[in-house]
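Lecture 7, part 2: worked example. A protein chain together with adenosine-5'-triphosphate.
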Amino acid sequence: MIKNQPIWRRARYALRGFGMAAREEASFRAELWALLGAVLFLIWVQASLWWWGLALVLMAMLLAAELLNTAVESLADLVSPEFHPLVARAKDCGAAAVFVLSTVGVFLVLLLLWQHFHGGAR
Ligand SMILES: Nc1ncnc2c1ncn2[C@@H]1O[C@H](COP(=O)(O)OP(=O)(O)OP(=O)(O)O)[C@@H](O)[C@H]1O
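Predicted complex, written out as structure tokens:
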């Protein structure tokens, strides 16, 4: 096992993981489209810097949660391809993490829409 590699090599591994998830994981691709949609939405409502910051942090957390969920799923499939209640628990918790962040995202969109139509997006 090679440890403590230079930062540029670790960045290359990270980009490889990102690319792999974008190619092979439909949920990750859907979240990338949601990120694009969120950016267009923020431009449309002329959101303040505060909203931009909040939305970008949330989207980064969502993408990171999906990547970690994919990592958990891959390891779970390696360790136990057959049905196992602990694998179900691990995968369900990973999915729940993504679900929590997506739900917050939907609420943020609703809040911003409400503010846009009832008092300007500030
Ligand atoms: N080996 C297993 N043992 C027990 N339950 C499993 C197993 N594999 C999958 N499951 C159950 O099926 C659900 C879906 O698992 P799956 O691996 O198909 O994820 P997925 O739908 O591909 O998720 P994602 O869309 O995030 O990739 C899990 O949340 C879990 O409840």
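Helices lie at 7-24, 26-44, 49-79, 85-119. The chain has one domain: 26-119. Keep this in mind for problem set question 3.
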